Amino acid sequence: MKIRYNSPTVLTYAFLSAIVLVLSQFFFHSLTELWFAVPGKGGFDPGRIRSWVTLFTHVVGHASWNHLLSNFAFILLIGPMLETSYGSLPLLVMIAITALVTGALNVLLFRTALLGASGVVFMMILLASFTNFNEGEIPLTFILVLALYIGRELFNSFSANNVSEFAHIAGGFCGSLFGFFRSPKRSNV
């Protein structure tokens, strides 16, 4: 028996996020803040390349090991199934679009910085509910997952915490759109 790199997009994403956290915690203490956190409203400078880069890279940066592990527990569980169903490149594109959407909305609507993969987690959770999707049908699993996960985030958004429930909701919205418009049965697997 041998170990296989079975999910290149998901595994590379996980390893890259862990490397960034190690580098930030032990060697370059401002790395995450500078390159892996999208600034909030007023902090985005359209004249700086770094501002544009962080619209995508914020999903790689994490504040702590607990933050990273809580996100990647879901990504490593759900991601390989999605990568098998949709393909590595399409999943990478979905992750990039979700990063851009959550980052841009944060810049436009909120004053606090955003970092972490939780928007991607919610994209994957909602997208996973479409794996048994047949054209002309709405999966009951999608409705239940939408009600449970997004409903919880709407409820939690009224409490004071350091969690961006809006990024979760936006990520879930992206996953829903990907699920409706890109069925795994129509994709090149």
Structural class comes to mainly alpha
Q: Outline, from the CA principal axes?
A: globular
Contiguous uncertain segments of 5+ residues: none
What's the architecture, going by CATH? Answer: Up-down Bundle
Record keyword descriptors for this entry.
Rhomboid-like fold, 189 residues, mainly alpha, 65% helix, single chain
Q: What does this molecule look like?
A:
The chain is mostly helical. The chain has one domain: Rhomboid-like (Rhomboid-like fold). The protein is 65% helix and 0% strand. The chain is built from 8 helices and no strands. The longest helix has 22 residues, at 65-86. The relative contact order is 0.15. The model has no long low-confidence stretch (mean pLDDT 88). It comes from Treponema primitia (strain ATCC BAA-887 / DSM 12427 / ZAS-2).
Summarize the structure.
By secondary structure, the protein is mainly α.
How is the topology of this model organized?
Layout: H1 8-26, H2 31-35, H3 49-57, H4 65-86, H5 88-109, H6 118-128, H7 140-156, H8 165-181
Helix pairs in contact: 1-4, 3-5, 4-5, 4-6, 5-8, 6-7, 6-8, 7-8
